[in-house]
Design a protein that fits this description.
The complex is a heterodimer of chains A (197) and B (77).
Chain A: E1 3-6, H1 14-22, E2 28-33, H2 36-48, E3 52-58, E4 61-67, H3 75-84, E5 89-93, H4 103-117, E6 126-129, H5 144-152, E7 156-160, H6 161-167, E8 178-179, H7 181-190, E9 193-195
Parallel strand pairs in A: 1-2, 5-6, 5-9, 6-7, 7-8
Antiparallel strand pairs in A: 2-4, 3-4
Helix pairs in contact in A: 1-2
Chain B: E1 9-13, H1 17-29, E2 34-38, E3 49-54, H2 58-68, E4 73-76
Antiparallel strand pairs in B: 1-3, 1-4, 2-3
The chains are: A alpha/beta (197), B alpha+beta (77).
Chain lengths: 197, 77
């Protein structure tokens, strides 16, 4: 049975939360959303849960179908899997500056910090950007090439979509990395350690 | 396949981070492709940052920085 969710007009992270809740009960869900961030969020949710993902466009709306061929598992089992397959370091960029004090110095230090992540022996598992931290992910930030290189090495990059809209830099951001509070908190929660430069 | 397109980089080194900050501003106004990186350990064990750029920009960046700074050093990376 297909379960349908109308998530049009809802801001992040609501569409993804509604979808996640229904994934416990149904194995085929159709979600209608009206923005690309929601599409990317649900796509990430589907892939991290091992669900098949398909998307079509209808006018200004996106119709997403996600399916699972596995029997639905209980909550307890899911939690165990979630905490098992994740480890490592998550780096949280809550500002585009490193430390507090002089802003220009902080900006320079942060660029050098991000470049240095590339030389770590064990790459972090995820990088999270919110508030002015999202400015680091813009194409002209001076750090975008390093972030691209880290992404290619398999580092998960999560950028707060609300913050991107607030700073009005959506056209300078890779949409694959746009994320929401739900994913951000989940990633922090399951990390072995958090680094906040 | 090995390509020989890996760029050759140079670094501009300054006496202090304040100089790096000023130099970054000047070079960004000129829209030059530069990057702030930590000073490689092979050059200095001090904590510091420097400005990295591709070899093709060496002439123009040398000219600009030599005009603006008394002390700036260029090193091939």
């Amino acid at each position: 049975m297909i379960h349908k969710i109308d998530a049009k007009g809802l801001a992040c992270p609501q569409p993804v939360v509604m979808t996640k809740n229904k994934m416990k009960e149904f194995s085929h869900i159709e979600i209608t959303v009206d923005n690309e961030t929601a599409v990317e969020n649900i796509k990430r949710l589907a892939s991290s849960s091992g669900w098949f993902f398909d998307q079509t466009i209808s006018g200004n709306d996106f119709i997403i179908n996600i399916k699972s061929d596995k029997p639905q598992v209980s909550d307890e089992t899911k939690e165990t899997i979630t905490s098992f397959d994740n480890a490592g370091t998550t780096i949280v960029f809550s500002s585009n500056k490193m430390g507090q004090g002089d802003d220009d110095l902080g900006a320079i230090l942060m660029k050098a910090f991000i470049h240095t992540i590339l030389s770590l022996e064990t790459a972090p598992s995820a990088l999270i950007f919110y508030n002015s931290g999202v400015l680091l992910t813009a194409e002209d930030s001076g750090a975008a090439d390093d972030l691209q290189a880290l992404h290619e090495r398999g580092v998960e990059i999560l950028i707060c979509g609300t913050c991107v809209n607030f700073y009005n830099i959506g056209d300078k951001i890779k949409t694959w990395a746009l994320s929401n509070m739900y994913d951000i908190l989940n990633t922090m929660n399951r990390a072995d350690r958090l680094i906040n430069p | 396949m090995i390509t020989d397109s890996t760029p050759v980089y140079f670094a501009a080194l300054f006496p202090s981070v304040s100089h790096v900050m000023k130099a970054e501003r000047i070079l960004l106004v000129e829209k030059l492709a530069i990057k702030i990186i930590p000073v490689p350990k092979s050059i200095s064990s001090d904590c510091g940052v420097c400005i990295r750029f591709e070899e093709k920009l060496l002439d123009i960046i040398q000219t600009i920085l030599n005009n603006n700074f008394e002390k700036v050093e260029f090193r091939k990376l």
